[in-house]
Amino acid sequence: MSLIGAYDAMTDQVLILEVDQEWNVPYWTSVPTLLAAMVKPTSAKHGPLEGQTSGFVRIGKAQH
């Protein structure tokens, strides 16, 4: 799971904060590219996750 660290409304891009920064550095990508990646099924090389799609978790302040 990687975090979206920022959103740039001027360019409609998000900053992806990779969890494994030994191999991947943070990078900017467009919102349409992010959404396309989230609905693309996982390949067979990921074993039991094959065919699964991503999603998102929204974290926010609890409302009382």
Automatic annotation (TrEMBL):
InterPro entries: Papain-like_cys_pep_sf, PCS_N_sf
Listed name of the protein: Phytochelatin synthase
Organism: Thalassovita taeanensis
